[in-house]
Specification:
The chain is α+β, with helices and mostly antiparallel strands. It is 54% helix and 9% strand. Among the domains are: 50 residues, no CATH class; 91 residues, Helicase, Ruva Protein, domain 3, CATH 1.10.8.350; 61 residues, no CATH class.
């Protein structure tokens, strides 16, 4: 008996075939190699087919853009930025984190003291530019600073993805293809207008663009020229960023010099049916129900309409919110977001 046979126990016998452990390993390795080669071949073929399919998709986008009268040169330059579906974009789109934060957790995460400190410093440097722009477009610096701070950290980050690449990937993917194809066509229209070069059009993996984080459709509707150069550059022109945010809120009904809301104290527990931004009463009626300013004093006006929002339920932080709170929600339909914007902007501009 060979040394191999003598040291390897017999593990399989079938029709007189005897395989040692080592021999079986050799056989399995060979079979795995063959299967692996076949899998690689199939995978390679699938990848090639996908690239070809993506190419056909881009050609259909090109044809649609040209039919809409967009520049052939601009469309070609833009679509050259994407050659195959972006795996990173697809991963982020399909595996978005699913978790629920309490208001207290959200507040601590997005409103650290460091953000207020930075915001005050940035505002001191930008107020001379921001204030006239905000006023021209019917808004207040508080709201502009709050949104600018939450969306891009006061311009510190505006995304790392090519908007064309991201939108084309998501339009091709099929999960929400109609929505993203529409946004892709609008992005091409923006490029055709000459506000930004294709390679400089960067944003989030979902196509939200620049320091204001506008989707292309929002950009076409609300982006504004704040510095007077004839372009709407929400990527590198702070004046245009301020003008665009202010224009968005102004067109959504912002009431200048009116508060978004304020923290309040509840002297008694309100019925759950009384809570929520749509349950409006006059401040006089709220005071009759035990609602006071955060310091316990009465409101200075009694006929103003407001609603009580208490995100974490009875016994937790509560706010009286007004019309402008709902305008902020037009930017992002979340009570948490609107509270964050309001508190950040007020904490910066009113400091």
């Amino acid at each position: 008996m060979s040394r191999i046979a003598s040291v390897c126990p017999i593990i399989s016998t079938r029709k007189g075939l005897v395989l040692t452990v080592l021999q079986r390993r050799h056989l399995l390795a060979a079979l795995t190699s063959v299967a692996g080669s076949a899998a690689v071949g199939i995978s390679s073929a699938n990848a090639q087919a996908r690239v070809q399919s993506y190419g056909a998709f881009l050609e259909s986008v090109r044809a649609q853009a040209l039919a809409q009268g967009l520049s052939s040169a601009i469309v070609s330059q833009a679509l050259s930025l994407t050659t195959q579906p972006n795996a990173s974009v697809l991963k982020l789109d399909r595996h978005q984190p699913e978790f629920t934060l309490t208001w207290a957790q959200y507040r601590d995460r997005v409103l650290p003291e460091s953000r207020f400190v930075k915001g005050r410093s940035v505002y001191a440097a930008q107020q001379s530019v921001m204030s006239p722009v905000s006023a021209r477009f019917g808004c207040d610096d508080r709201a502009v600073m709050g949104i600018w701070g939450l969306e891009s950290g006061f311009g510190a980050h505006d995304g790392t993805y090519s908007v064309i690449d991201a939108l084309a990937t998501l339009a091709f993917d099929g999960r929400r293809s109609a929505f993203f194809r529409n946004e892709l066509m609008k992005a091409l229209q923006i490029l055709n207008d000459g506000d930004i070069a294709p390679a400089a059009m960067i944003g989030s993996y979902a196509g939200a663009m620049g320091q204001a984080q506008f989707m292309p459709s929002a950009y076409l509707r609300y982006a504004a020229d704040g510095d007077g150069d004839g372009k709407r550059n929400i990527w590198t022109s702070e004046a245009d960023v301020f003008a665009s945010i202010a224009n968005y809120l102004g067109k959504c009904g912002w009431q200048v010099n009116e508060p978004w809301g304020q923290e309040v104290t509840l002297t008694k527990v309100l019925d759950k049916a009384e809570i929520g931004r749509t349950r409006q009463r006059t401040l006089g009626e709220w005071m009759a129900l035990g609602v006071r300013r955060v310091d316990g004093t009465a409101f200075s006006q009694s006929n103003v309409q407001g609603a009580v929002v208490q995100p974490d339920g009875p016994g937790t932080q509560a706010f009286m919110v007004y019309h402008n709170f709902n305008v902020i929600r037009r930017y992002n339909p979340s009570d948490y977001y609107a509270l964050g914007v309001g508190l950040l902007g007020t904490g910066i501009v009113s400091a």
